[in-house]
């Protein structure tokens, strides 16, 4: 057989560790740095304070978790936002002879 073998995951070679984009790691790093700074500055009195301090790292970590069929949760949220904010009514502009005209209009344009 003289066919070509194209791997299904060819984009993985462009990612850091085969999983993360540069933006993902920068965003996660910023969340971790903010959490570390808050741990150093805020006095820890109870469990709720610890959870609130760790929230930036937890949220950014949750956004960059790899998911099947998508890159990560951040990608899914971006696509959902794009879908909800773009036009939802699509107009047919194909190869059909009438192209959205009435029967009378299409016959007069053809002749």
Summarize the structure.
The chain has 111 residues and is an all-alpha fold. It has helices at residues 22-41, 47-63, 73-85, 103-110.
Which short descriptors sum up this protein?
111 residues; mainly alpha; 4 helices
Question: Could you walk me through the main structural features you see in this protein, from its secondary elements to its overall organization?
Answer:
The protein is mainly alpha-helical. 52% of the residues lie in helices and 0% in strands. The protein contains four helices and no strands. Helix 1 runs antiparallel to helix 2. The longest helix is centred in the N-terminal third of the chain and has 20 residues. It starts with 21 loop residues before the first helix and ends with a helix. The model has no long low-confidence stretch (mean pLDDT 79).
Question: Which residues form runs of ≥5 with pLDDT under 50?
Answer: none
Average pLDDT score: 79
Radius of gyration: 26 Å
Query: What is the first-to-last residue Cα distance?
Result: 53 Å
Helix/strand structural class: mainly alpha
The succession of helices and strands, N to C, reads HHHH
Count of individual helical segments: 4
Largest sheet: none
Give helix % range. 40-55%
Strand content: under 5%
Indicate the overall shape.
Answer: flat
Count of distinct strands: 0
């Amino acid at each position: 057989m003289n066919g070509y073998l194209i791997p299904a995951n060819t984009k993985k070679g462009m990612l850091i560790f085969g999983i993360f984009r540069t933006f993902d790691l920068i965003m996660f790093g910023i969340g971790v740095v903010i959490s570390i700074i808050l741990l150093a500055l805020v006095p820890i009195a109870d469990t709720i304070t610890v959870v609130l301090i760790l929230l930036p790292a937890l949220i950014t970590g949750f956004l960059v978790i790899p998911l099947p069929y998508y890159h990560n949760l951040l990608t899914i949220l971006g696509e959902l936002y794009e879908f909800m904010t773009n036009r939802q009514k699509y107009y047919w502009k194909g190869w059909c002879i009438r192209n959205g005209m009435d029967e009378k209009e299409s016959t007069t344009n053809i002749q």
